[in-house]
Specification:
The protein is mainly alpha-helical. 66% of the residues lie in helices and 4% in strands. α2 (18-43) runs antiparallel to α3, α2 (18-43) runs antiparallel to α6 and α11 packs antiparallel against α12 (197-218). The chain is globular and about 65 Å long.
Length: 286
């Protein structure tokens, strides 16, 4: 398998949507940064960066946003530098694996997109409401880029469904996921009047949506199901089975799934019995 074939397999054939999201972000980043660097070296200009900011980043000024109505989507796939995309993709990969472990792969893309939109909404609303942004003129010139809000939705979603999931850090030791996420949310809140106020506000918007989404999912309401269906791979093969002994009990009931999700939220994944883990696994494959 060649390098490109391996990338294609990771993005479209593994089942996990994390590789798809990471792949799109990396491809977009390289498609902008490589010609942009060549332009600076050869022509000493930065038209690519200028047009990227103007047409793909999310403006806070409402009249401009109306003429750039696609930017609430494009901004969450644009990054301002190598370390910006590196840390976002690392968090997406690490926390996304936890999210998919408990809730399956079919909800990842939907939560990413809606979390990013929630972050965009809170960012634009804040910059047009609070005097710190309107009276200073920041609303006229500010724009946002990055997957941080979308990633925060998945991070907080994972922490909501498995708050006691333990991660071991070098030099620190074991830390429960809920405390780790709480620290990052406090840092974001403290930064909403700093130099990256727009970014911090959008993080909080994505985090709020991630929490609400999982809580609603535990009550049987899946807010991202329609979006997830757009990215569901469909097999061209049709398998027909005739098994009269197969019981409908093989498909977990929704109330049973909800009970298990509530148990995870209250007591953590390790509190589940082997049978409950099997039920949750089968449900995630549906």
């Amino acid at each position: 398998m060649t390098f490109l074939e391996n990338i294609y397999y990771k993005m479209f054939r593994t089942g996990s949507k994390l590789y798809l999201l990471i792949g799109i972000n990396v491809i977009v980043f390289l498609a902008i940064i490589i010609p942009g660097q060549l332009e600076k070296l050869m022509f000493r200009s930065d038209l690519i960066d200028t047009y990227t900011t103007d047409y793909l980043s999310l403006p806070s000024y409402l009249p401009k946003l109306l003429t750039r109505f696609w930017t609430p989507i494009t901004y969450m796939f644009i990054h301002s530098g190598f370390f910006h995309i590196l840390f976002n993709m690392l968090w997406l990969y690490w926390m996304g694996q936890i999210f998919e472990e408990f809730l399956g792969e079919k909800r990842t893309v939907g939560l990413y997109l809606l979390g990013g939109l929630a972050g965009a909404f809170l960012y634009v609303a804040s910059y047009n409401i609070f005097p710190a942004f309107t009276q200073s003129g920041l609303v006229l010139v500010s724009s946002a880029v990055g997957a941080s809000a979308a990633v925060m939705a998945i991070v907080v979603g994972a922490a909501t469904i498995a708050p006691d999931y333990t991660i071991v850090f070098m030099f620190i030791g074991p830390v429960k996921l809920k405390w780790l996420v709480l620290v990052f949310l406090v840092i974001d809140y403290l930064g909403i009047t700093g130099p990256n106020a727009g970014g911090e506000i959008s993080h909080i918007g994505g985090a709020i949506f991630g929490f609400i989404y999982v809580r609603q999912l535990q009550r049987g309401r899946d807010m991202v199901g329609a979006i997830s269906g757009l990215f569901k791979s469909r097999s061209k093969l049709k398998v027909v089975a005739n098994n009269n002994n197969k019981s409908s009990a093989d498909t977990p009931r929704q109330d049973e799934i909800d009970r298990i999700l509530d148990k995870i939220s209250k007591n953590g994944y390790e509190s589940l019995s082997k049978q409950e883990k099997e039920i949750l696994f089968r449900a995630s494959k549906k």
